[in-house]
Structures are given as structure tokens and as C-alpha cells.
Amino acid sequence: MTFALSQEQIEVRDLVRRVAQERVAHRAAEIDRTAEYPQDMFDLLRELGLFTLPFPPEYGGSGSLLSAAVAIEELGRVCYNTAYLLLVQWAPLGAILAGGTPEQKACLLPGLADGRLRAAFSLTEPQSGSDVAGIKTRARRDGANYVLNGSKIWCTNAGVADFVLIACKVDEGDEVSFFIVERGTPGFTVGSREDKMGARGVPSYAIFLDDVRLPAQNRLGGEGGKFKDVMEALNQSRPLIAARAVGCAQGAMDHAVAFIKGRRAFGQTVSDFQGVRWIVADMAIQIEAARQLTYAAAAAVDAGKRGAEMATLAAAAKCFASDVAMKVATDAVQLFGAAGISNDYPINRYFRDAKVLQIIEGTNQIQRNIVARNIIGPGKR
């Protein structure tokens, strides 16, 4: 898949890079330290009109996932959590765009697009992360309503969301659908906040459903649910996770280079040691490889690629880029020496956030399974 950044995408990159440096970077450490939701950063993204970036022009966007990837990378370079604010808005927006009824789209998408509404997306349960077939939360039809029972974990953004898209198995079968559950619905409870190693500024929560009664029109997509359409939309958004990893890796290298150029040992600047220079060269090579793969995956979405071909490319981008982020962050901590394990320096934040990226949105082992299945075929069970 070939691509080249358009003039508009270059302008998006330069704008977000400038804003990230001038208005976001100074907040990154405090957001991580306090683990408090950064409302000021949400307001900034809303002010810039970035929430609609990957979505069609009728919602104020560019219609380009590559543009969105560029923006995510630049924000992730200085603050993982601010970049995350875009992604947690985009997941439910993309799901509704792909699988919602016309009425659901008209009701919810304008508010999500301009930031008047916030949402969360809930799939994971204690016994089933990437194993969608293992979902135990149930939606039982009761006349004109559905009654939901079950629990979820790692529901990011639930604490501030106006509504949550929750995956349930319908009735007694294995059919999975998403339901729109509004904040304040009787029986719907947001539990305690997870104390996370990384990605601390956008909290994740357990959620509980105890006889939550919803009208049938709250089933995303109506009868039938359009679950496959929603999951395909999530697959298409996976390059954005890769873009966040590229930004994390680039930011870690930026900090490491600045540190070694300003530090002396054994009578010379640390950056003059050949071994150190090779480490930095490897960082740069790996980051650029990850960037090119990520941009190619995003451009493939824009070009209309779908199905197994797109799934393979998206999984490869997410897996490779997040592994690179972890490798680069690990080497960056090493270059900082003892300072790398001190909370007085930012590099340990990149290290912790990089580890998160190897796990979320499908672990890298799951991504490798996707690639292998599409090359070799399904394995034996």
C-alpha cells in the first residue's frame, strides 16, 4: 500500500505538533501523576475540532484515517493521555457510524462529533478479554424492552461518559449485540476506578448491570444488531493504536537524545560514545519502520481495503509499532541510567505507557494470531 501525506495532512500534523508542544507537553507529567481526568485537554481538543477528524465531511471531518493517525502520533509524542482522549471518543463514534440506525446516528453522532457528548465502549469481561465468544453479560427480551444483567471491566471513560455501548449476548443464544446504556439508567452502576500502571489520565472502570431495562430502540442497529459491522469498524481503527505507539516511541527517543547530549561521562559527552550512538540509530530505524507500516495501514482504510487483507495489515501495524514502542522506551530508560528510574524524569512514563500499548485493543499475541490465521489458515483446536 503506497501513500503520501497530502498538503492538508501536513498542515494537520504541523498544527497538532505546535499545539502539543505549546499547550499539552507541560501538562503530561501532572496528568500521569494525579491520574485525574484532564478536562482541560478535552476542552482543547474540542476547541481544535479534532474529534471528527477521521469521519465523513457531514460530521465535520476529513474522512481520512491517515489524518487521524498523524494527529494521534503528534499528541502521543508528548502526552499519551491526551492522545487517548481522541481514541476513546472515536471508538463509540465509529461503532455508531458503522452499525447504528438512522435515528441513532441522528441522535448521537452530532454530539459526539463536537464534544457535547462523551461515550465509552465496553466489551471486556473478567473471564473474556479478546474472547468475544466468552461474553456472559446477557440481554433478555421482555416485551418492548430488553433487560440487561452482567458486569464488565476495563471500561475506559465510563466515569465521564453520557452513555456506554455495552456488548451483550441476546436472550439465551450466542448472538452478540451492543446496547446504548445512558448514564443514570436504573440498575446501571459505574464501579471503582482502576489504579493503572500507565494510561493513567483516562481512567478505566468496572461497570455493573442489574436488571437494566432499555427500550428496544437502544439496541445498536436495531433488531439483528449489526455486530459484525461494528467489529469491522473497530478493526479499521486499529492503525490508530499503532499511531499512538509511534508517537510514544518518538517521544521516548526525543527525551533520550536531549538527555545524552547534555550529559558528560569519562571526559566526554555521552552522545559521543559509539555504543550510545548505535542505540539511538536503532531507535530511529525502528520508529521509522513502524511509522511507515502504520501510515500504510491507515491509508489502506482510506482506500477502502476491508476483510482479511485489512485485518492482517492493521494487526501487523498495531503489533509491530507497540513492540517498537516498548523496545525504544526500554532503551531510552537505559540511556538515562539511574535517572531513568527516577520519577523526576519523564522517561519512566513512556516506559509504562508503552507496556500498556502491547496489551490493549487485543494483545500482541492476538494480533499475531490474526496475521497467522490469514496467512496459514485457522489452527487446530
The topology string of helices and strands comes to HHHHHHEEEEEEEHEEHHHH
Main beta sheet strand tally, sense and closure = 7 strands, mixed
Number of E strands: 9
> Helical content, roughly?
40-55%
- Class by SSE composition: alpha+beta
Q: Which overall shape is indicated by the principal axes computed on the Cα atoms?
A: globular
Report the uncertain regions. Answer: none
Put simply, the count of helices is: 11
Average pLDDT figure: 93
Rg calc: 21 Å
Strand portion, in percent? 15-25%
The end-to-end distance, rounded to whole angstroms, is: 33 Å
What's the gist of this structure?
With 381 residues, the protein is an alpha+beta fold.
Topology:
Blueprint (H helix, E strand, L loop, with lengths): L6 H18 L3 H7 L4 H10 L16 H12 L3 H20 L2 H13 L4 E4 L15 E5 L2 E12 L6 E8 L5 E7 L5 E6 L10 E12 L11 H35 L2 E2 L2 E2 L4 H29 L4 H30 L10 H11 L6 H13 L5
Parallel strand pairs: 1-4, 2-4
Antiparallel strand pairs: 2-3, 3-7, 4-5, 6-7, 8-9
Folded structure, characterized:
The chain has 381 residues and is α+β, with helices and mostly antiparallel strands. It has helices at 7-24, 28-34, 39-48, 65-76, 80-99, 102-114, 227-261, 274-302, 307-336, 347-357, 364-376, and strands spanning 119-122, 138-142, 145-156, 163-170, 176-182, 188-193, 204-215, 264-265, 268-269. Strands 1, 2, 3, 4, 5, 6 and 7 form a 7-stranded mixed beta sheet that branches. The chain has a two-stranded antiparallel ribbon with strand order 8-9. Strand 2 and strand 3 (145-156) form a beta hairpin. Helix 5 (80-99) packs antiparallel against helix 6 (102-114). It is globular and about 80 Å long. The protein starts with 6 loop residues before the first helix and ends in a 5-residue tail after the last helix.
